[in-house]
Amino acid sequence: TDVDFNRDDSRIITTSSDGCIYYWKLGALTRDQEYVFKGMAVNKVALSRNNKKETHIVALCETHNEFTSQPQGPAEAMMMRRQSTMLQRRSTRGLDAAAMAADALAFTR
Description:
109 residues; mainly beta; four-stranded antiparallel sheet; four-stranded mixed sheet; globular; WD repeat
């Protein structure tokens, strides 16, 4: 499990070993979005924003074999698998933001 805050600390993202990723609004104390990757323990998470102000949630699962994306609402969740010290990464939108978040997962955690 892991947790990360957005740039202005108004939102938080949490992950769990049951494959759930939750995106929370801290001011309202409500869950804004939910992503479920069944059968995958989500170990790490990072938030990143691109120049278009789209938020990208990048999560890491040790057992997941391929990239998975769930675009929904203001944030897009992406699941990736660690392969040695590198991450496989692809995105249909916001590749730069997704890559920055993936790099944060690979090299700072």
